[in-house]
Design a protein that fits this description.
Keywords: DNA integration, DNA recombination, DNA-binding. This protein has 24 helices and 8 strands. By secondary structure, it is an alpha+beta fold. A 4-stranded antiparallel beta sheet has the order 1-2-3-4, covered by helices on one side. Strands 5, 6, 7 and 8 form a 4-stranded antiparallel beta sheet that branches. The protein is elongated, with a radius of gyration of 32 Å.
């Protein structure tokens, strides 16, 4: 209770007290309701008026308590401040969620500025609707449903705190709304775009200035390759990764590289693609304090130092800007399929795309590997459905015995190769492989394509007749029947090249090619 002045008057056998606080002209009333002290201003300057008002307030609060209404209420800003302090306390104790950081930002940026002076019990559904309009104007766009989920979770934390402290009852918590726009397809890299980026990196690195600028580019190269070959999240998961979190284990005669990561959705273990060991060795070779150790010794020592750091040992948070510069310099900043700018997070989506298309990984396994939910995988990668069905449509899964099909089309892309495992030092000219793809039957077209892939990526190739036919088809100048005739699907010995396969699947994905046409193009 606050310090009372000497001018204190008791009413109703002492159940109610009326007093004046120092430097205040209005009389205050205090009384106990359900074992808790309540203090409220009578807003009266005359004692007789204050006594009458104090009796009325006492009865009023008793009625509120009997009818299940909160006896004490607080302003939104005060409850939000307590909520933020409680979340900070849990984070420090190691019991808080990673999402608490997002909740804190949301409360401080949106909810407190709008609802700060309002009593938390006075916030209604209509108020939330008005707030939604204000928030959209402040953001400059309609928020996505996933963003609104974060906002609603943050607001619910405040309401839960208010209920727990008796500032409001659960029945008075307003219904939260989520009418955000659906999540859009996320920008990733197609095979040829990924190849262009990786092939350009060595030259791009050498163009950087000596010193930290070039060191950043070297680190970015391996950071890109590790993200694209593990599916870990850029940000907290990558920043928290330390050498002690990396392990090798054997199973069925094969060796696998495992990482333990911790970030947005909590801790999890994941299996890295085979080539990841080379990129880790390359980072190790640029770190003087661990460069003299063998890779096996490094892992056995459980070194408690960040993986992603510069030669001077400093961890950097500026790779995002360096990556954007790379995207701008290579002309890959805008994803042509989504119209969005690519970010380091696009590498996680690229991992998911390659895992579904090239490995045939099922969504359940992929969800565990990436630390997300099956509905999230299905929501963001449903556009891959035509490609996921390509083996069924072409009949390839039924032309070969199961064991031969697995050997040929389901390569052990995550098993570490013996030569990589036993290599003493990293090859300075490591050729970063694309995530493993099933072998394709060679054809004249595929040989031409494979030869073209070895040429400088910026060179312009002479388009094949099939390419020209697809260009006309994409432009609406050629129909499906004309496309099939130009490609020559009825000719003896016709075998589709990889380029034809991808363009045909793209056309189905975009609704321009029928399933019957796809089957004919895929032979």
């Amino acid at each position: 209770m606050p310090k009372l002045s000497s001018q204190t008057v008791t009413l109703l056998d002492g159940d109610v007290r009326v007093f004046k606080r120092d430097r205040s002209r209005a009389w205050q009333a205090t009384f106990k309701i359900d074992g808790r002290w309540v203090r409220v201003s009578t807003k009266c300057k005359q004692l007789d008026d204050a006594k009458k008002r104090a009796r009325e307030l006492y009865v009023e609060y008793q009625v509120r308590q009997k009818n299940g209404l909160p006896v004490i209420s607080k302003r939104f800003a005060d409850v939000a401040a307590v909520t933020i302090a409680e979340m900070d306390k849990q984070v420090v104790a190691g019991a808080g969620k990673k999402s608490y950081r997002d909740y804190k930002i949301v409360l401080e940026r949106y909810f407190i500025p709008y609802f700060g002076d309002r009593f938390i019990t006075s916030i209604t559904y209509e108020d939330l609707q008005q707030f939604a309009k204000w928030r959209e104007h402040k953001m400059g766009h309609e928020p996505r449903a996933s963003t609104l989920n974060t906002h609603n979770s943050a607001l619910n934390r405040v309401f839960d705190e208010a209920v727990a402290r008796g500032y409001m009852n659960r029945t008075h918590v307003p219904v939260l709304i989520n009418k955000g726009r659906d999540s859009e397809r996320r920008p990733d890299f197609r095979r040829e775009e990924y190849r262009k980026m990786i092939a350009t990196l060595p030259t791009w690195i050498n163009k950087g200035r000596d010193g930290k600028s070039r060191d950043m580019r070297h680190l970015l190269r391996d950071y890109i390759l590790i993200l694209a070959n593990t599916g870990i999240r850029h940000g907290t998961e990558a920043q928290n990764l330390r050498w002690k979190h990396i392990h090798l284990f054997e199973e069925d005669g094969l060796t696998y590289l495992e990482m333990h990561v911790n970030g947005k959705t909590g801790p999890r273990d994941l299996i890295c693609r085979a080539g990841t060991i080379n990129y880790l060795k390359r980072i190790q070779s640029r770190s003087p304090d661990i460069a003299d150790m063998s890779f096996a010794e490094l892992l056995k020592a459980q070194v408690d130092k960040p993986v992603f750091r510069l030669p001077d040992g400093a961890a950097t948070k500026n790779l995002r800007q360096t990556f954007r510069l790379l995207m701008t310099d290579t002309g890959l900043l805008k994803c042509p399929r989504t119209g969005q700018s690519r970010t380091l997070y696009s590498l996680r989506h690229t991992y998911a795309t390659f895992a579904l298309l090239n490995d045939g990984m099922d969504v359940h396994t992929l969800a565990i590997q990436m630390g997300t939910s099956i509905p999230m995988i299905e929501r963001h990668y449903s556009h891959l459905t035509p490609r996921l069905r390509k083996d069924m449509l072409t009949g390839k899964r039924h032309d070969l015995p199961p064991d031969e099909f697995r050997r040929k089309y389901d390569v052990q892309s995550h098993a570490v190769q013996r030569e990589d495992l036993e290599a003493v030092g990293p090859d300075t000219v490591i050729e970063p492989e694309l995530p493993q793809e099933p072998e394709l039957e060679e054809s004249v077209d595929s040989k031409v394509q494979d030869h073209a892939d070895t040429q400088p990526l910026l060179d312009h190739k002479q388009p094949t007749p099939a390419d020209r036919a697809f260009d006309l088809f994409d432009a609406g100048k050629l129909g499906e029947a004309g496309l099939l005739a130009a490609v020559g699907v009825t000719r003896d010995g016709y075998v589709p090249s990889e380029t034809i396969t991808h363009r045909a699947l793209d056309a189905v994905d975009q609704g321009r090619l029928s399933e019957d046409g796809l089957v004919k193009l895929l032979g």
